[in-house]
Amino acid sequence: MRIVSVVLNATVLFCLVVPARARAEATASLVGSVRTSDGAALPHVAVVITGAPETRRVATGPDGSFRVEALAPGRYEARVDVPGLEATGVAETVVADGESRLDIVLAPAPVRERIVVTATRGEAALSTLGIATDVLDRERIETRAASSLLPLLQEVPGVATARVGGVGTQASAFVRGGESRFACVLIDGVPVNQPGGAYDFGTALPFELERVEVVRGAASALYGTDALAGVVHIMSRRGRPGAAASLRGEVEGGSFDWQRYLAATTGATGRLDWNAGARRLTTDNEEPNSAFAQTAGALSLGLRLDARTEARAVARFESSEVGTPGPTAYGRPDLDASFERDDLTVSAVVRRSDPRLAHALRFGYARTDQLSLNPLDSGPFVPTWGDRVAAFPIFDFPDPEGFQNRTARLDGGYQGELALGTRHLLTAGAELEHETGELGNRAGEQLHPERTNVGVYVQDRLLLGRRAYLVLGARVERNGSFGTTAVPRAALAVRLRDGADATTLRGSAGMGIKEPSFLESYGESFFAKGNPDLEPERSTTFDLGVEQRLFGSRLRASATLFHHDYEDEIAYTVVDFDTFEGTYVNLAHTRARGIELGLEARPGAGLALWGQYTWLDGEILESPSDFDPVYAVGEPLLRRPEHQASLTAEWSRSRLAAGATFVYVGRRADSDFVRLGLSENGAYARLDARLRVRVARVAEAFLIGENLLDRVYQEALGYPAPGRSLRAGVRLTAGGGR
């Protein structure tokens, strides 16, 4: 009986204790967050929870938080391996019955990780993406001290630029061999391309910028029209939470009668942060009738409504005027022609981020008002270049009233991000856009086109194991010109080795679309009649690359192979050679493939290095052009060099900072467009340098030199680039921080 009693008591005890233990195992959970040392959340990164009983893997949600359910009680260690970010200590805790918390803070490595937005329309660690993306942050933009945005873009792998003269003149950026209208350009999330994709970078100057993100590869699966070759996203400077208010003022003068004045303030108080700035710039640009003047303003306001909800409004305005003397390398300048431009961009976003779900409502408005003027007849001239003489004279076409090009894009949208299970981060959104225009000679009847576009998109970011990240997405676009079409995208990043010397393989594939311009669809000119039946221009892009970190993340090197196919390109063609009646057709087809190499290093002692090299093999596969041999089948792509490289070094210590940038641009196909028979533009090299000295607690003096070797070259045939220039100035800063 005693034995039976012991067995019964043991059985009762087992029945009471084991279920209680099972309940404890079933109810124990671990929650936490992953953030950088400056407070930025890290969404969709792998968190590995390791303990004696078991190992679990989970991906963080939209706000960087994670939750692991049904853990057995015990001591656990959490590991997050993101190349370029280092844990500030051992992240471990004891998980008991109920809910335990563990927050993980990662500090930047010497070559730090980038948190990007443009590649996925949500914050993402760059090392988790198979999408080729580069970031020019505030520090790099400010230390580079470039006179315009173009030299900065020129230092991004896969991006070529061309400008018809000095600062403020018409300028283009070509991403991976695409046309200048093949990249979607965003300012604070608002598309600013003219309807049809064109964007003139000539007046884009580095003014109150937080960062510039460049995505290479078709991104229409997220952004719809215009993103055939990639995306350039320009983001305004903002106040940082906790930063005391500061005032900044700059005065700068130099060669070519350069004068620049800037005043700005940045700060945060309570739930509000702000940045506001105003700038005035004038220069004569060396060439006759090339003077440029711009007045610009920028305002960014952020308001934290509660712990998880933030509202932000941003506005930027630029008013510019520049002389347009024409191709002065071939003859007399046009001394009265000019180009006036006013740009306005406004955006407003309200975003709420919860552990598993984030919502965002966005509104955007972009307007550009451009006016080309040529009030006087400057007379004809015969173009010459060396011993070449054109067969026909060039005539001036005076236009006292001017040609107006006023367009606007009004758009709004909703986006949601949902963490599904422990491995998926699902993004879905919808956008509505209305485009309007007022185009034509102001002396006559103008064209007033309008178009409405609707797009819906979905994207899944999937964690495979703990070292592989897959992105799958697609968008359906209903365009007011060409109807409905769908475009997909996929990208994969696989980390072969963790730690400071991580190796990551990347690859992506996607399709892009671009709508016709207003003139291409709705134009009424006899010589260039619009074609309402145009199909969208399309692209199919692939790339495969590897990134290697070395020497404790003091060096990051990357190599990428890419292949882009651009089809159904819209080109002008003459349909009747007796009357020279013309229209637009989907007949052109080009191909671009190549290699991109990138380098970033911080070897120590205040030294930082950036370098890039791009080899591009571009070719015209189909063309309807009968007028210029540079557009013939088999020819290379216009103004896109086969070889391009740059190397930048920055050094700082105590009160002194110095830097230099060397740029090489190889030979490229071009045309004089005045029948001189020139079809190639020669290679050129440019050396820029800068020096900064802090002369007092609130004062810094600086000296900047561009084209220090005084090279004679033309970014576009016929338009001489400025020679050597020197600028000097003083920056005054009062208050807390920069």
Describe the structure.
The chain has 738 residues and is mainly beta. It folds into three domains: 2-108, Sandwich (Immunoglobulin-like), CATH 2.60.40; 115-217, TonB-dependent receptor, plug domain (Ferric Hydroxamate Uptake Protein, Chain A, domain 1, Beta Complex), CATH 2.170.130; 230-735, Maltoporin, Chain A (Beta Barrel). It is 6% helix and 57% strand. The protein contains five helices and 47 strands. It has a 22-stranded antiparallel β-barrel. A five-stranded mixed β-sheet has the order 11-16-17-14-15. A hairpin with a 3-residue loop joins β29 and β30 (468-479). It starts with a helix and ends with a strand.
List the main descriptive attributes of the protein structure presented here.
738 residues; mainly beta; Immunoglobulin-like; Ferric Hydroxamate Uptake Protein, Chain A, domain 1; Maltoporin, Chain A; 3 domains; 22-stranded antiparallel beta barrel; five-stranded mixed beta sheet; 5 helices; globular; disordered N terminus
